[in-house]
Design a protein that fits this description.
With about 400 residues, this protein is mostly helical. About 65% of the residues lie in helices and about 5% in strands. The chain has two domains: about 160 residues; about 170 residues, Alpha Horseshoe (Serine Threonine Protein Phosphatase 5, Tetratricopeptide repeat). The radius of gyration is 26 Å and the shape is globular.
Length: about 400
């Protein structure tokens, strides 16, 4: 829905689209291999598996959505198969919208082996197993899909198509689903919802374009919910605006969720550089939860945020924040606590490894050698137990 965008935002959006169309045309002439959009395994800065060509493939798919011809069937199939391969190898699993978009476009003119293609997407990882709609398995005909599954002897596939030998859905239900999903893949960019343009700009690290989209969306007659807006602003690094939005959320929040919203506000204030406000809200949360039956739910987050805040701040202020977090940690470490009972039987490390590492960094920065060594020992013990649990030792 581009009608409510300011002219500057439209220029930015259409500028991105023009770039994608150029990429699509470049890729088209590389048939049949389409090498530049294939899954290409690399290691990222965190030494995790990544797909070097994921974004180029996404741009090609987005342009193809608005400009597909009969000659693009092989290209679309290649994009789909590369998405499946990426989802099968992604270190954090996940289920990206691009896989569904490619599947829905493929379903409009399904190839003869469409069942196996859709099943490869459904079974790519845990998230696709749960989220990829099984009705796509029947886009080439439900009865033929059931017959093929029986011929293959694939009981798992058959269970997604039948229940006690009866089809789980009909051809009419599949057609209705595909028709409903057409809103997800409009053939004109003017029919895309603002969230789609924001997400694409965000993926491409076009933060200013993403912010322009949000600003115009907020000024429209159907602005986004504050919960969405806060997350969107934070995701593109506009933390001060995210703080303002979170304050509105907090003002309207049910009292039972005050601690949760205050914690989020403290985190956003830290990210925005509003350190005094962040620390004040951490103390507010602690005052609320230390006598609460459900306080344990938030103890770890308060300690984590405290250590993180002490890392990014300086001097006496950083020391005060560290001591605050360390005091809460000492009150909880090695025992189970609740409002009604303290069981002094030691339990395993209650802080996650990443928080222990934050504590080590904070203590080292402050020159607190005893705390640094204590947290190092706890981190090493935690890592040892993780390695034992994962079979690495």
């Amino acid at each position: 829905m581009l009608c409510f965008y300011a002219s500057g935002t439209l220029d930015s959006v259409y500028g991105m689209l023009s770039n994608w169309e150029n990429i699509l045309n470049e890729v088209r002439v590389t048939a049949p291999s389409f090498k530049s959009i294939q899954f290409k395994e690399v290691k990222n800065g965190a030494d995790l598996l990544a797909d070097e060509q994921m974004l180029r493939r996404a741009k090609c798919l987005w342009a193809l959505q608005y400009n597909r011809s009969d000659a693009d069937d092989l290209l679309l199939r290649t994009i789909f198969e590369a998405e499946v391969q990426w989802h099968s190898n992604a270190p954090f699993q996940g289920f990206a919208k691009e896989l569904t978009v490619a599947a829905l476009l493929l379903a409009k003119r399904p190839p003869s082996d469409v069942l196996q293609l859709m099943w490869s997407a459904k079974s790519a990882n845990f998230d696709t197993w749960c989220g990829f709609d099984s009705r796509l398995l029947g886009c080439g005909g439900v009865e033929s899909a059931i017959s093929e599954a029986r011929e293959l002897g694939d009981e798992s596939l058959l269970n997604h198509l039948t229940d006690e030998d009866q089809p789980l859905f009909s051809d009419d239900e599949v057609a209705e689903y595909l028709e409903d999903m057409d809103a997800w893949i409009p053939t004109s960019p003017t029919d895309e919802v603002p969230a789609t343009w924001f997400r694409r700009a965000q993926m491409l690290d076009e933060k200013n374009v993403a912010k322009e989209v949000l600003d115009d969306w907020c000024a429209s007659s159907s602005p986004p919910e504050d919960s969405y807006l806060q997350q969107a602003l934070a995701s593109i690094g506009f933390f001060a605006e995210a703080v303002d939005t979170q304050q509105r959320i907090l003002a309207k929040a049910d009292s039972a969720r005050t601690e949760l919203h205050l914690l989020k506000l403290a985190e956003l204030e830290r990210l925005a550089g509003f350190y005094d406000g962040s620390f004040a809200n951490l103390k507010n949360v602690w005052n609320l939860i230390k006598s609460s039956r459900n306080g344990n739910t938030y103890y770890r987050k308060v300690v984590e945020e405290g250590f993180t805040l002490s890392v990014v701040t300086e001097g006496a202020f950083a020391s005060e924040v560290f001591e605050f977090a360390e005091k809460i940690d000492r009150s909880c470490y090695g025992r189970r606590t609740s409002k009604f009972k303290i069981n002094k039987k030691p339990e395993r490390e209650w802080l996650p490894l990443n928080v222990l590492k934050e504590a080590v960094e904070a203590a080292s920065k402050l020159g607190n050698t005893s705390a640094e060594m204590a947290y190092k020992r706890r981190a090493e013990t935690k890592r040892h137990r993780i390695n034992q649990a994962t079979g690495e030792i």
